[in-house]
Specification:
YefM-like fold; alpha+beta; three-stranded mixed beta sheet; single chain; 2 domains
Amino acid sequence: MIKIIGNQEARTRWSGMLQGVKSGERYLIGHKGEPIAELVPPQAGDRQARSKRAPEKLLQLISTRAPVGIDIKALIDAVRGEADPFNRIPCFR
């Protein structure tokens, strides 16, 4: 059974609601009579499924990022105020 609760009451009873969710309770949070969120326990297997997909998602994210051609060590030295004797940082050329 879903318990319907207003957003103000949800704020004041948040920790108790989380304990209820751990016990299997479900909450529908509303604002001005309109439902805005549902607080429910996770489905069995959700965490395991996300964990199994995590490495694939990480590789996908890495492969879509553009490679950066900046020498991090040289950048750190420049920020610390050290000179760039080898002219490695493009913005100082």
